[in-house]
Design goal:
Number of helices: 14
Number of domains: 2
CATH architecture of the largest domain: 3-Layer(aba) Sandwich
Mean pLDDT: 91
Order of helices and strands: EEEHEEHEHHHHHEHEHEEHHHEHEEH
Radius of gyration: 22 Å
Structural class: alpha/beta
CATH topology of the largest domain: Rossmann fold
CATH superfamily of the largest domain: P-loop containing nucleotide triphosphate hydrolases
Bound molecules: adenosine-5'-triphosphate
Strand content: 15-25%
Distance between the termini: 32 Å
CATH class of the largest domain: Alpha Beta
Largest sheet: 6 strands, mixed
Helix content: 25-40%
């Protein structure tokens, strides 16, 4: 768990992070969004003390980060930046091994960990371990960057625009990979992004910053239903609100009894995806299938539209 308490950063007379307080629960993903220059990266970098706070404090699992030596702190906390930041003259394996080597792991343990991570990120060790960063695609470099950050099994991962340089298709895949790996390892993540779509997709809670201040910190549903100020409402995207609400709910939430014609929709699909299928196929309802493929009911357009309405 990360507890950020009254954290402030000033450069001269300019306050770039102003009295921010927020808590990230263990195993959760907190996403920080906001305008350019709002102080997002500075807030993130105060967590691992790459930037020293002017005042306030950060507790990690109850321990004040000022009481942890900086080296030890950075070994405990994975850090991923945009454009991956890989060392160009080290191989993929060498890059991933960076922190384990600093921690003095033996060669066998390091090699095992490198293999394990490459497999986790669907990069065949035989093919990729010996390659250099310039021999990889952008998406592969980004995966190696995340693998490197996870190498010493940090309980906490900080990510600054990690997918900013990726094209939309690879980006979406990278987000899904991250979610799958995060759920599996239980890593606590704080991620900075410009992209609201990414924030809604990844964030258990979303922190909205503007002009150095934290305007709101809540779940996606809270931000949509009760945006704190006009700025949050605009950022959430007024025209997008119904669709974002539908993205947050699954077909299970609007499952109806009875038959319907057509290709079944998975019960785990989002209502947004179900609506898209209904529009595309020109139907008012489609059958719904469970994980095993058995039809368990139907999803109708009326039920979906009700769930895209402004929450009361
Ligand atoms: N070392 C520094 N010295 C002086 N000012 C700084 C320093 N680092 C950051 N700033 C200023 O602090 C403000 C916040 O910067 P920060 O990088 O945290 O914003 P951000 O929200 O992450 O922006 P972006 O989305 O554009 O990356 C900016 O106005 C920036 O110019």
């Amino acid at each position: 768990m990360i507890e950020i308490e009254n954290l402030t950063k000033r450069y001269g007379d300019t306050t770039v992070v102003d009295d921010v307080t927020m808590t990230v629960e263990e195993g959760a993903i907190a996403v920080i969004v906001g305008t350019s220059g709002a102080g997002k990266s500075t807030l993130l970098r105060m967590i691992n003390r790459l930037v020293e706070p002017t005042s306030g404090r950060v507790l990690i699992d109850g321990q004040d980060t000022r009481s942890i030596p900086e080296d030890a702190l950075r070994h405990r906390i994975g850090y991923v930046i945009q454009g991956h930041g890989l060392f160009p003259h080290r191989t993929v394996a060498g890059n991933i091994a960076t922190v384990p080597r600093l921690l003095g792991w033996d060669a066998k343990r390091i090699a095992q960990r490198v293999d394990e991570l490459l497999n986790l990120f669907q990069l065949d060790p035989a093919e990729f371990a010996g390659k250099y960063p310039h021999e990889l695609s952008g998406g592969q470099q980004q995966r190696v960057g995340v693998a490197r950050a996870l190498a010493a099994r940090p309980a906490l991962l900080l990510m600054d625009e990690p997918f900013g340089a990726l094209d939309p298709v690879i980006r979406s895949k990278a987000q899904d990979d991250l979610l799958a790996i995060q759920r599996r390892l239980g890593t606590t993540i704080v991620l900075v992004t410009h992209d609201m779509e990414e924030a809604f997709h990844l964030g258990d809670r979303i922190a909205v910053m503007d002009g150095a201040r934290l305007l709101q910190y809540g779940t996606a549903a809270e931000l949509l239903a009760r945006p704190a100020e006009g700025f949050v409402e605009r950022l959430v995207g007024t025209a997008e609100r119904p669709f974002r609400l539908l993205s947050l709910a699954s077909v299970r939430d609007a499952l109806e009894p009875g038959p319907a014609e057509g290709e079944p929709v998975p019960v785990s699909a989002s209502l947004r995806d179900a609506l898209s299928k209904l529009i595309w196929t020109g139907r008012d309802a489609l059958p719904v299938a469970d994980e095993a493929g058995a039809v368990i009911g139907r999803i109708g357009i009326g039920g979906i539209l009700l769930r895209g309405r402004r929450p009361s």
